[in-house]
Amino acid sequence: MSHISYSALKIFNECPFKYKLLYEDKVAKSNGSEYTSFGTALHEAAELKVQDETVNEQDIFLNKFESEIKLLKEQKEVDEKLVEEMREQGKKLAPQIIPALKEHFGEFKLLAAEEDIYEVIKEVPEMQYAFKGFIDLIVQTPDSKIHILDWKSCAWGWDQKKKSDPMVTYQLTFYKYFYSQKHNVDPKSIETYFALLKRTAKKNNVEIFRVTSGSKKTENAFNMLKKALYNIDKKNFPKNRMGCTYCEFKKTEHCPWKKESFQLY
């Protein structure tokens, strides 16, 4: 069965032609950066610490960060000053994750860390697609509420515009919907959150905030998903030249710069 992830859907929404290059033509993506290395290492520290509080989260972060940077150096030159700053920032951040969870939720039970989702998209049965994803953390509180969290590493944090941006928050809308489908639980018993892991903030380095997904928002999210799947199925991949500015494929052999219409059906 064909599948789509939220990251792939987001890329399609930004530029269908970029989606084609990555997911249809299998053109290799860039090899990451110091920022992705930091995020990967901090995610691993959070994932392992929440499962076993006896582990040393600073050591986990540092070991993973060093291995990621080593791989990155094989591909490109890195900013050594930034890398050193990130080492210290990660060592400071990692020990704050569990206390922040306890402060926010109080008593909780771990249900899963890095749970995989691979669920049939029943709304488009004629296309036979599944939604694929990985949920960073799922906990349950004594009131039987299930809480889905997605870790996001960042610099100082997010402004209110980004916190409410549909193309950011739809990720949790889909996670809630398909987790409910996978486990056959009432969506009303599920709450969703982003947990910001902030490198450069002076305080509140771990910020957990709730994202709501009512019936209207869920409907809007699925309308976008169905529209994307329809165009993918029809091999309709126009270039959105408004999104070319920071695209890694701009002016390359894969996507020369030229004006093209942007039209989806």
How many strands appear in the DSSP assignment? 6
What would you say the CATH architecture of the largest domain is? Alpha-Beta Complex
Mind telling me the CATH class of the largest domain?
Answer: Alpha Beta
Stretches with pLDDT under 50, minimum 5 residues: none
> Which band does the percent of strand residues land in?
15-25%
Q: Determine the CATH topology of the largest domain.
A: Lambda Exonuclease, Chain A
Structural class: alpha/beta
Characterization of this structure:
This protein is an alpha/beta fold and 265 residues long. It has 2 domains: 1-13 and 107-233, Lambda Exonuclease, Chain A (Alpha-Beta Complex); 31-106, no CATH class. It is 44% helix and 20% strand. It is built from 9 helices and 6 strands. It has helices at residues 6-14, 16-24, 34-51, 57-73, 80-93, 97-105, 160-163, 166-183, 215-233; strands at 2-5, 109-120, 129-140, 146-154, 190-198, 206-211. Strands 1, 2, 3, 4, 5 and 6 form a 6-stranded mixed sheet that branches. A hairpin with an 8-residue loop joins strand 2 and strand 3 (129-140). Helix 4 (57-73) runs antiparallel to helix 5 (80-93) and helix 8 packs across helix 9 (215-233). The chain is globular, with a radius of gyration of 20 Å. The chain starts with a strand and ends in a 32-residue tail after the last helix.
